[in-house]
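Order emerges. As here.
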Amino acid sequence: MSESEPRDGNVTGIMSKIRRGRREAAATASIPAVPTDVFRVITDVENLPRWWPRVKKAMLIDGDELGREQVLTLDWGRQEGTIRQKVVEWEPGRRYAWTVVSESADGRELPPLVKTRVTVTIERDGMSGSRVEIRAHFDPVGGRGVLALRQISRLARASYRKALRDLRGVVAPGA
């Protein structure tokens, strides 16, 4: 058996495990604000740079509410990136979700590694608070996507925890 055979078998085994189910990343937090106030902030594209990590600028491209498209300009360290999103769920005061349509870095479109859907769910928490969850579903695209999943989901969880801390500061400053 050559050295590449076990490695290929390993990758195939990993790919079959991942293909059987979706990979997810999630974070949850309590925010001292009513769900409608939280929903208003998270769905306002212009507010995204105030609470979503690495977002430098966000613009509405087309549409309103369900089906709208928006573009985020991100600081990816050594590169500037853009992500185009499409809103696929819109339940006022309760749920907001988008899919990633495309990504680019330094003006070059990137081949997709994973298909990504991010959902923000808001539930009442006590008399005047909200429980907010950010959850992403990642479906790998090809072998490179499978290999990137672990890092993508780890980075996403850390990013979502920071997003929720920053969202709390925007929705309920001083609380």
